[in-house]
Amino acid sequence: MIIESAEVVVTSPGRTFVTLRITTDEGLIGLGDATLNGRELAVASYLSDHVAPLLIGRDAHAVEDTWQYLHRGAYWRRGPVTMTAIAAVDVALWDLVAQRAGLPLYQLLGGASRRGLLAYGHAGGRDLPELSEAIHRRLAEGFRAIRVQSGVPGIAALYGVTDPGTAYEPARRAARPVEEQWDSRAYLRHLPGVLEAVRHEFGPELPLLHDVHHRLTPIEAARLGRSLEPYDLFWLEDCTPAENQEALRLVRSHTVTPLAIGEVFNSVHDYRTLIGEQLVDFIRSSPTHTGGITALRRILDLAGLHQIRSGMHGPTDVSPVGMAAALHLGLAVHNFGIQEYMPHAAVTADVFETSFTFAAGLLHPGELPGLGVRLDLAAAARYPYQAAYLPVNRLPDGTVHDW
Ligand code: GCO
Ligand code: MG
Q: What domains appear along the chain, each with residue ranges and CATH number?
């Protein structure tokens, strides 16, 4: 099965997605997600200028060799742009190999280890009544685990909180990033009361998650983790800027609240201390930003030795192709934990036809050969690229802070 062409498709149906589309001599088409939120064109260029020409004439079955060729062969290793580009190639090749075998991809990854993947949905509100309404809405949609984000008095624009009824979408279409605010002391004072109220209203069973989005110092994170222990969180996510792996030693030694980290990681090396010293409980990487299925599977196998489970990133900026890859891998690995699921805008379905399902709180990748996703090129052309940026964060005195 020889690769004849590799084409990069940039389209913005609702938001921007970058997709690698590989065609073989037998006419099969494999898809890989290369979407890096707010930096999409950098990956598109890396792929079309530097990677696509190397793929022509290669054997599409050579998944591992191609991964090593693009990773070691580039000399310059790691980094979100490079690893997202390699991920797109890797996922597109897995898609092709599985289509050629006539099997849904999860069957090539070891087969199903469970009936479906427990998914969590997002609920955010500016205050408690809005938050409660948002949680009820998610439960009515079938979610059986909820991520809870709340407004904080004194902070005007905050991560994870939108006007009632509008879907949360972090990237905004504007010439420059919008600016949000942050105040750790106000947040630390307010959040425990929010989780207490939610736990009280929704009872002890419902898994609740919360995302700090990289904003606290280790000692602040330790304090927060400890103060949330009575509310039995499923996880506390990205409590500190996660690239400092050693910071988690301090957090871990002070709290038994489970910790999830890694949506901005792109390599197994970002996890070595965290996994080796058992400093986290869930791996947030998605195939899209971590070098694909080949690379994430290695990370999850290492994590499994330490009873650390998957909790793959599944925001709208992981495309339907990237979501399908996550679902096939998640269905197959033994140490699956939970899958984030932020459904795409309805208009995205004009371009991407998917076969994954969501029922009774569980996602399933479906039974079509390969990933089970199709890209309609003519429809993609109707949604030309539109620039969007993630927000930038500032403290009350104007200092730039982690967003
Ligand atoms: C999450 C994430 C997202 C990110 C977004 C950035 O937990 O889902 O934190 O909301 O902010 O993916 O591109
Ligand atoms: Mg997050």
A: 3-104 (3.30.390.10), 108-369 (3.20.20.120)
Q: Which of 338, 330, 334 is nearest to 361 (CA)?
A: 338
For 52: left if phi > 0, alpha if psi spans -120 to 50, otherwise beta; the answer is: alpha
> pTM value?
0.97
Ligand 1, atom 8, lies closest to the CA of 315
Point out the catalytic residue in the list 46, 106, 120, 159: 159
Provide the sign of the torsion angle of the four alpha carbons 355, 18, 174, 390, taken in this order: positive
Inter-CA distances, 176 with 18, 128, 166, 194, 288, Å: 21, 31, 22, 32, 25
Check pocket membership of 340 for ligand 1, CB cut-off 6 A: yes
Helix (H) or strand (E) holding 73: none
Residue identifier of the C-alpha nearest atom 9 of ligand 1: 213
Atom of ligand 1 nearest to the CA of 171: 13
170 lines ligand 1 (CB under 6 A): yes
Distance in Å, CA 274 to ligand 1 centroid: 20
- CA nearest to 321, candidates 353, 357, 285, 289: 353
Q: pLDDT digit string (tens) for 32-80?
A: 999 999 999 999 999 999 999 999 999 999 999 999 999 999 999 999 9
